Each structure stands twice: as structure tokens, then as C-alpha cells.
Amino acid sequence: MEQTLERKYPVGIQTFERLIRENYLYIDKTDLVWRMTKESPFVFLSRPRRFGKSLLTTTLDSYFKGEKELFEGLKIMEVEKEWKQYPVIHLDLSSVKGKESAKELERALNLLISEGNKFGTVKEEVTPGEKLRGMIRRAYEQTGAQVAVIIDEYDAPLLEVLHEEERLPEYRRVMQEFYQPLKASEAMIRFCFITGITKFSQLSIFSTINNLTNISMDDRYAAICGITEQELAADMAPDIAMLAQKYECTPEEMHEKLKQMYDGYRFAKSSPDIYNPFSLLKCFNHKDISNYWFDSGTPTFLIRQMRHFRTDITTMERIEASSSAFDRPTEAMTTALPLLYQSGYLTIKDYEKEGNSFVLAIPNKEVRTGLTEGLIPTYTGLDSSAVQDGFAIKFWRALKRNDIDTAMEEMKAFLAGVPYVEGFQKKLEEVKNYEGFYEYTFYLIFNMLNVYARTQVKCKNGRIDFVVQMPDTTWVFELKVNGTAQEALEQINSKGYAIPYQTEGRRVVKVGVQFARDTMTVGEWVVE
Fold it and tell me: What's this model's pTM, rounded to 2 decimal places?
């Protein structure tokens, strides 16, 4: 008889009080919350969307209000002895994003402050900064206690206007004026917590706040959002067993499936692997392994930045970089790398102490699939679902049964229907001679199918255009636009591209592919 598990998963619930009172599953982070509030009065944390930032802010809200009963049985009870009450100003700036002008943004901020104001208003206070400063002062004077200021999604109003020369400076000016009172009111503030996705420099956004502590890459707080391997094993073993029963596998096998799908995030040098909490909880709630993080699609601001910087998506399987390259302020970006990391599309996979450098890569299967679906329209001009449901699955099935001729015929027909799009950032005449276009197409297709594929693979005598590894076969592709398929195959052989894979126990197949310049599709291919 199938077992049932009475468990309430907080899917879509971001309020700590409701989560506790209504007995939803809660992964206890309160010891980290307590430590964070004791170490610095001004704290900034960057984490990807849907990673538990809002739940963290509401936990802080309840803690500073002294709602001790909500924390009974949690780790914080072992260390917190005083339980003082403070007035709390809690603002969620996600509600003011998407405004068409700086004036509209200013009006929306004023309305947001008014809605959360319990301490009265003064008519002389007109701007958002003036209103915020007045609210902090009156809260302090009326209660006799310092104030806790919590700002969630601080960067939401700016993400949609990144690199817009006209609007961004004006929006930034409004936000500077809004945040300026935080430093000026320092003596009246017990704790200020600011969270968001991206990292804007203190100079451009937070103005005079020169004591803001950024814990985004602090080893001690690497697990403050998300679910660690240890937490999954300790708190969710029954959930794993229940899902394993549905999928007719062992709990150990199900654990591995979940790990491949939702794990893989690291936010510091010594960070444990972190599971995406939103996706993992949705998976248990729906009892189905699926791509949940991308329900609302890849953010448009990210796609725009990748196009703006002409991002080479084929490099995202492994990027070596210093922390200053991927954790730099948003307005100082010279590539999309910082935004890809801060948004959760790339994560830390390794840290090399000697060179003080990091290795970044796509975190897991869910991100790889979702990112690919978001990028296919940009790089091919086609609807991602049409690609996946039509061409891609046919191509994959043919390759799986080692039928390279059918696979390439499918590729030929597919590329013949790919229109030129601006997102490729090349004139049509240039694209006809650009092998990278076809590498991008191959890469996106295989990523969508969760097939391990790499482009421009370094080897002793050069770079292999494309390597695809399937359970029983490794495919080594060389692509030619200005050349023949036979020349491509000869290059594979003369440079020994296939040699590194001949000892792995898989069948190795070499494929030379020539693309026709006039039709922009596969012209011929030869196989060995």
C-alpha cells in the first residue's frame, strides 16, 4: 500500500510568521540570522531570485519585533537571551519595479513608504529620502528604541534599465536620494539589512553608506539561503523516500536525481553545495521532478545584457576568473559574467588557492535546460518549444541509435529554417562565414536535451570544435564553412583530436561537417 506523508511545503509562502504558525516545513537558519545581527549594523546580501531572500527578511522582521513564541524550538533559542523589541521598517522594492520614468519611480517609492508608515507624516517631507528619514526619526522618538530597517529586492527598480543611457542615471539618482538617510540616521538604527540579486557599488547607489558589510561571499553565511546537502538528508529524508516510491527507485537513487537537477550552487570559497530551495520544495509538493525555477522564463534583463555584451554562451561550462571579475558592481560590468553569477546562472564550482582564482560553471541540469530555452529564441529566432518538441528530439534519438546520417539530415532541415536575428549581433553576410553560429546552435540543442557537449575543447594540437559524450559513444565534430567535410575529417585525424577519448571505454566517432555558405545549412558530412 502506498504511504502518505503529511507535510506542508511553503511553496509561494515567504512570510516567516505564517510559515511557523501554519506548520509549514522550515529549514532552520536562525542561528545564522542571530550571528549576522550581532556582527555588523549594516549588512548587504546578494542571492539569485527565488532563493529565500524574502523569507530571510521576514525572519529578521519577526526577530526584531521580539516575537519570541515564533522561534520556540529553533536554534536561535540557544543563543538569544534578551529578546528586545525594536520598531521595524520593512520595505519590499519589488513592488516599484517596471516604472516608465524616474518621476513614476519616485511616486511609487513615496506610496510604498506611506503604506508601511505607522509613525505619522510631515507635509514638509516630499521626496522618498525625506520620507524615509522622517519615518526612521519618528519611530526612534516614539518608541525610545533604535530601528531595524529591512529592504528587500533593493535593485528591482534598476534591473530593467541597465545600460540605458537616458533612464539609468535618472533612476539611480532617485535611488541614491532614497538610500542616503540610512547613513545619516546611523545613530537611530540598530540593524539595517539590504538584499537583492545584483551588486551595485556603494558609491553609485548607497552614497554615503561606507560601513555596509557585504556577506554575499562570506564562508560563514554561504548557507543562509538555500538548502544544504546536510539539511536535505536530516530534514527531508521522508520526502526523498516518498518521491522514490513514486519513481520506483531507491531513496539513494532519488537523492542523486535531485542532486543532479537542483544542487550545485556555491556562494563562497568554502561553501557547501546548495540546493535551489524553490525548485526542491516545488518538486516535493508536486511529487514530480521538473524545471520549476524557469516557470516565469529567463529574466529579460539577463537576456538583454547577454546580447549587449555579445556573450559567448559556449564558454559557460567552465570559466576561470578572479572574484573581481564576477563579483564586481553591476555598473562596472564589462561582460555579462557578474550578472550571470549574481543571478544564479553560473556558480562557483572550484577555488584554486594558489592563484586565488575561481572556476565558474552552470550549476545543474535545471539551470542548463531553462537557460537554453530562454536563449534559443535570441540565438536562432525560433520558439524553444518548437525546437525541443520538433527537431531536437528527432536529432537526439538518431544520435542515440548511432544513426549519424539521419541526425545530420534533421540538422540540415532545421538550419534551413533558422532566420537571421539581431541577437546574433552579426550581419547576414558575416554569419554565413562564421562557424561560431553553428557551434552555438549545436550547443543549445544538446544543452536542451541535457546531453553533455563542449565546444572549442583544448587539446595538445589545437581546439576541437565540438565534443558530444553520450553513454556509449563520444562524437568528435569538426565544422567547416570555408572548406570541405573531408578537410574537416582530415583535421581531426592529423591533429589527433579523438585520441584523448579512445581510452574511456566508449565508441569514438569522428564527423567532419561542411556548411553551405549560400543556404546557411549543412552541406555535406563524412563519418569515420
Answer: 0.84
